[in-house]
Amino acid sequence: MGPIVNNVAETEGDPILMKSDNFPTYHFANVVDDHLMKVSHVLRGQEWQTSTTKHILLYKAFGWTPPRFGHLPLIVNKDGSKLSKRQEDIGVERYMDRGYLPDALINFVTYLGGGFNVKSTAGLKLNELVNEFDISRLRVNSGKLEMEKVDDFNRLHLKRQLQENEDSLIDTVSLMVEAKEYSWSIKDIILHNQYMKKVLTWSLDRISVLEDLLEPEFQYLWVMPHNIHLEQFTNLGHDSRTVINSTIQYLTKLEQSDFQQEKIADLMNKFVKNNGLKYGPYMTMLRKILGGLNVGPSIAEMISVLGKGNTINRLKYSLM
Predict the structure, then answer these.
(1) How far apart are CA 297 and CA 82, in angstroms?
(2) In terms of Cα–Cα distance, which of 188, 296, 310, 185 is closest to 248?
(3) pTM of the full predicted structure?
C-alpha cells in the first residue's frame, strides 16, 4: 500500500493501553504477544493502517525492533460492498460442511489476493503455493468475491485427487453410496474400482462436490430402475419386448471397446435405422429403462458410463 504516516497524538490523543480492570487493550497485548513470538512480518487488512503507527511507537517504547508491516486490500462482495459477519453463505464451515476440499478454499482465497510467480494458481496445493509466493506480486486492488469460482477450484482438486490418489477418492465415494442405503440398488455389483473410476472421470465436469453424485439426476449410477411398464411404449414401430430383445442381442455382440460414447452413438443410430425404429420413442424407452429418467444425459453417455454389462443387465431386468 506504500508508506503511511499517521500522527497518533492528533488522531487519538493519549491512547489507552490498560483498562480500569487492569486488563490490557488489544493494541498493547498484540504488540507484546507478537514480540514474544518473535514475529518478523505482519500482513493484515488495510483497515489496520491507522493503528500501525501506534503499534510501532509501542515497540520503540519497549526498546524492541518492530516487525515489518504490510497492509493488504480488503476482500469485498461482487458488487464492491463490504463483507458482513451476517453473510452466512461465506463462512468456511459452511463450505466444509457441503463437501468442499480445504485445498479448493485455499485456492479461492489466494486467487483473490494474488502474490505468486505463476500465471494461475488454479489446482495448486498449499505447499506449492508457499513455494511460489512473492510478496511483491500481491494485488493492490480489493479482491471481489465470485463465489462460483469455488466450484471451479473444487472440481480441479477432485480431478487432481483422481489422478494422484485414485483409490482414496474411490473409497470416499463408495462409502457415500453405501451410506445412502438406496432401495433397489445394484451397488454390490457396480461398486468396483473400474466402474467407479469411469463414473468419476465422466462426472467431475458435471458436479461441484462429491455429494452431488447422490442427487436424483445421478441416482441411476447406483440404482437399478424398477417398475418399468413396457406397455407404455407403444409408438416404437415394433413391439417393445421384441425391440429390447433385439437390442440385447445387438449389444452382446459388440466389443467392450465399442462402448465409448462417440462409437456407441454411431452404433445405436445404425441399429435404429436397420430395424426401422422411431428414433425419439426408442431413445425415450432406453432412457427410462437404463436410468429411470424422462430427461437426462444422451443414451450414448449413459451406456458408455454404465458399461456393457450394466446396460445389458438393465435391459434384461426390464423384461421381467
Answers:
(1) 41
(2) 310
(3) 0.80
The one-letter amino acid code at 144 reads K
Q: Which amino acid is at 279?
A: Y
3-state secondary structure of 192: coil
- The per-residue pLDDT for range 10-58, each reduced to its tens digit, is 777 788 899 999 999 999 999 999 999 999 999 998 888 889 989 999 9
Using CA atoms, how far apart are residues 305 and 299, in angstroms rounded to an integer?
Answer: 10
Helix 102-113 to helix 148-164 angle (10° resolution) is 130
User: What's the distance, CA 56 to chain centroid?
Assistant: 43
Give residues with Cβ within 8 angstroms of 179, minimum separation 6: none
Q: Which helix (H) or strand (E) holds 114?
A: strand 114-116
Are 122 and 153 in contact by the 8 Å Cβ rule? The answer is yes
Locate 122 and state its grid cell.
488454479
Q: Which residue has the higher pLDDT, 185 or 271?
A: 271
Q: State the DSSP code for 97.
A: H
Look up residue 208 and give its three cell numbers: 461441484
- Copy the grid coordinates of residue 318: 426390464
Which of these, 161, 163, 164, lies nearest to 172 by C-alpha position?
161
CA dist., res. 286 & res. 264, Å (int): 14
pLDDT (tens digit per residue) in 60-80? 999 999 999 988 888 888 888
Identify the CA nearest to 28 among candidates 62, 63, 67, 69: 62
Cβ 312 vs Cβ 252: under 8 Å: yes
DSSP 82: B
